[in-house]
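Design job #97: recover the sequence.
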């Protein structure tokens, strides 16, 4: 077995029983998320559900939202908006980094010999 696969948050490493135990939920809860199309685990060659760490984090967040009284539809919407916000923040961070790199280059313009081009 290639243990590096376990570093991949999308690798389906956990059975339904293992996932339920890790999350502190009952297995029917995870099956209900699959049946609703909210968290769709991969299937083993024998047809058993296999969950990734990423899917476990989604299921955990959904459990929190349900515990707060949200319906499935509102929990899905919140999860979607949280994902969009995280992606937007990551993009902003990348753009700020590029801006800083460009500003550094503008502050220190050097020619190919390392001499100032001025």
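Job complete. Output follows.
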């Amino acid at each position: 077995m290639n243990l590096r696969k376990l570093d991949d948050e999308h690798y389906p490493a956990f059975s339904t029983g293992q996932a339920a135990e890790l999350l502190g939920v009952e297995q029917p809860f995870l099956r209900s998320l699959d049946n609703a199309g909210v968290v769709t685990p991969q299937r083993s060659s024998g047809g058993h559900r296999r969950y990734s760490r990423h899917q476990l984090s989604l299921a955990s967040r959904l459990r929190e939202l349900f515990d707060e009284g949200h319906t499935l539809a509102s929990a899905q919407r919140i999860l979607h908006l949280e994902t969009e916000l995280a992606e937007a923040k990551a993009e902003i961070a990348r753009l700020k980094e590029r801006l800083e790199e460009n500003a550094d280059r503008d502050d220190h313009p050097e020619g190919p010999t390392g001499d100032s081009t001025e």
